Amino acid sequence: MARHLLAACLFLFLLAGCSQENTPFKPSADKRKTILIGLIPEQNIFKQIERYEPLAVYLSSKTGTRITLKILPRYGNIIDNFKMAGLDGAFFGSFTYALAHAKIGVEVLARPVALDNTSSYHGLIFVRKDSGIASRREMKGKRFALVDKATTAGYLFPKRYFHEAGIDDWKKYLGEAYFSGTHEDAVYDVLNRKADVGAAKNTVYYRVAKADPRILKELTILAKSPDVPENGLALRKDIDKALRSSMKDALLKMHEDPEGKAVLEQFGARWFIETTNADYTPVVNYASEIHLNLATYDYIND
Amino acid sequence: MKKKIIIGLGIYTLFFLLCGIYIIYIIQSATTELDRLITLHQVEILREHYLLQVKRVQTDLTLKDTRHKRTFDTVVQNVVSMGRIVDTCFDCHHNQQATERLQDLKKQTETYKDALSRVLTLRANTARILAEEDAAFQIGEDLIGKVRDVIAITSSKLAENTQRAMIRIARTKYMLYFLVGIGPLMSAFLGYIFLSGLTNPVNVLLDSTRKLKAGNLDHRVEALKDEFGELAASFNEMAASLKEQMLKMQRTEQMVIVGELAAGLAHEIKNPLAGIKVAMHVLSEETSMSAEDREVIRKVAQEVVRVESLMRNFLNFAKPAKPQLADLNVNSLVNTVLAFYMKSRPSAPDRPNAVRIEKDLQPLPETMADPMQLQQIFLNLVLNAVDAMPNGGTLSVRTSHEKETDFLRIEFADTGKGIPRENIEKIFQPFFTTKPKGTGLGLAISKQLIEQHGGEISAADNPGGGTVFRILLPVAAVAAETAT
Fold first, then answer.
1. What's the pLDDT band for A82 if we cut at 50, 70, 90?
2. Is A190 left (phi over 0), alpha (psi -120 to 50) or beta?
3. In Å, how far are A8, A12, A25, B57, B97 from A15, measured between CA atoms?
4. How far is CA A270 from CA A234, A274, B249, B300, in A?
5. Which one, out of A223, A256, B347, B378, has a CA that is 20 to 30 A from the CA of A122?
6. What are the Cα distances from residue A154, in Å, to A81, A164, A197, B400?
7. Residue ranges of chain B whose CB lies within 8 Å of a chain A CB
């Protein structure tokens, strides 16, 4: 009898062990992570929210991680907010990524390919056709609508544009130079005669032009910058590698999923492509040519 | 009555079905009306909420650059909420005019949002910033004005719609009360009609049944309709049949009493008759008696024998002997009876009053029957036939087998004057006779014996004149238990 009892106890222990070993690991729902993604004011901030909201929802469902968006009032704030507001990532502009990578070490994952099969943009300098401005010479004393000191098309490009003409103190050369805050507003300020000259990225210029035919009819482009990468998603270095990989994978395979394809269509892109730091070399070179130190650059608007 | 019930139930069902449908329609109408009112109130609340949200955003704009300013995120959230509210307005169906107003409102809202975005993101000199803020504020004020106009119109229409809806709902409510009230009344009325249609005839039948039970056998149910009419007819037939059966039973009881009385009387008379007979026999032996006295004694003895015969017949009728069944050839028995008659008849066949006998005897199967009783029956019928032809005639005897019923058919037909129609129904009744010296028990006894064999006996006019007596006897005769 004692022997049988001992055998039964041994069997129960073995059974408990087997049961425990066979139980698959499942993370608790309470441990679900929330990722806060910043959005730069590329266009009207409310339209920007509407544009990125479906993408955030899609990524949330694919990664099992809640993706929350936070619109920022200024391009430069995106770098500050990484430190103060606890951002985990952001869709950076080309110059803001270069700055953020240099200052806080974020790493890019992927960027979208536009409907015209391009994954880059360039800066435009434009005026009204009836403004009488045809070159930098006629811009003397005029009102210039920039976007933000942390933008390539909205600041870096115009700075180099005047530099090439030997005009380094271009703020004194111009009558007024201010930061519209968004590329869209820079375009409309020129269109609505609030500014004489404007600078903005071509993707936004043509996006708003599609909605407002007056832009192509009444504005003219004077100069274009070299191409730089379109806005890409970058995350903090210390983000979990599995999550990073999951988000990257979700972005790169969106076009293969019917649901993802619908989101891309709404977003205005064909698919996402992998992006690395090497893709931002044109921006770095651009800054270097005008003797701009990314690590110490003061991106706060005057 | 079945058709009437079905039609009545159909009307009943249709009535309540229509009432139910109408009540459902009324409730549906009222509910729809209330739903519409609720929706209109929700729309009004939504627009009030929208106005509040616009004012909140306007306040955020006013407080910008002051020490009470809201955070950027709060302002953005308020603007987003404002946009969602105006989008919600389009979820409802509107007429063209209302849709146009809402479209204009939405357009103004988008313009306001654009202006707010501008204010929130602009970095410029103070003059430019203030100009943009003022522009945004003015757009906000214009938007508030438009929203107020829309709310005013909505409130006005809502009041009108509410009043009309309440009137319609009140009317609906009264109609509902009416139907709820009239429903039971109609139900009661129809129920009363049905019950009357059912209970009145039933009461008539019950009353008739009670009268029948009380012994009034002449009572007949008055004319009723439908199935109750058929039932009444059946009741009347039953009453008539019951009366007839009761009369028959009375007669039967009388016969039983008479039979028992006769049997007892006959038994008591037999003994004295035996004594008289013996005494007469002794007296007849006296040698000193004169011839005249001897003749008297002979007549007395003869009458005693007659009385004895009468008593025996009484006993046979009152207590008929049970048949002693045996295999029997009816044709043989018929021949035996006829032979016996031929030997005993007083006149020769060639004389004018002689009775000529014709036989038509078909082959018959063996029959289980009492030969003595059948002989008695056949002899009685032969003697009756001969008595019916005092001036001569033909006695025809026929036998056959009815295969369909497995009965034997035996007929004795005479060519006499026949039995009067008024008597032909009585000849089988006991004590009925038209003969001066008859007892009236011969045919009654014959009938009784045949019935004990499970057979039948009847009399009818002979087509050629005279009377024919017909006996039907089962081949597999079973001695029936006599009622007596």
1. confident
2. alpha
3. 10, 5, 19, 65, 75
4. 19, 14, 114, 153
5. A256
6. 21, 17, 12, 139
7. 72-73, 76, 79-80, 83, 113-114, 116-118, 120-125, 128
Handedness of CA B394, B399, B402, B405 (dihedral sign): positive
Instruction: Tell me the two tokens of residue B340.
Output: 């016996």
Q: What is the reported pLDDT for B161?
A: 86
- Asked if B114's CB is within 8 angstroms of A44's CB, the reply is yes
Give bridge partners of residue A198 from the DSSP assignment: A126, A145
> DSSP letter at A256?
G
CA–CA dist B410, B382 (Å, integer)? 12
pLDDT at A20: 39
Give the length of chain A. 302
CA B136 – CA B129 distance, rounded (Å): 11
ipTM of the complex as predicted = 0.86
B125 to chain A nearest CA, in Å? Answer: 7
At B244 the three-state DSSP class reads: helix
Closest CA to B77 of B56, B62, B63: B56
For residue A237 the two structure tokens come to: 């270095």
Beta-strand pair A123-128/A219-224? antiparallel
Tokens of B58: 């306007």
d(CA B466, CA B385): 9
Tell which residue, B364, B373, B374, B377, has the closest CA to residue B406: B364
Backbone angle region of B165, left / alpha / beta, with phi > 0 → left and psi within -120 to 50 → alpha: alpha
pLDDT band at A28 (very low <50, low <70, confident <90, very high): very low
Pair B325, B371: CB distance under 8 Å: no
Pick the residue of B106, B117, B128 with the most A CBs within 10 A to test the interface with A by mutation: B117
Distance CA B74, CA B80 (A): 10
Inter-chain residue contact A185 with B121, CB threshold 8 Å: yes
The owner of tokens 């991106």 is A299
- Strand pairing report for B355-361 and B393-402: parallel
B76 vs A44: CB contact, 8 Å cut-off?
A: no
Mode of pairing for the β-strands spanning A197-201 and A123-128: antiparallel
A159 within 8 A of A125, measured Cβ to Cβ = no
Query: A-chain residues within 8 Å CB-CB of B80?
Result: 46, 49
Instruction: State pLDDT tens for residues B228-266.
Output: 777 777 777 877 787 787 777 777 776 677 666 666 676
d(CA A111, CA A118): 11
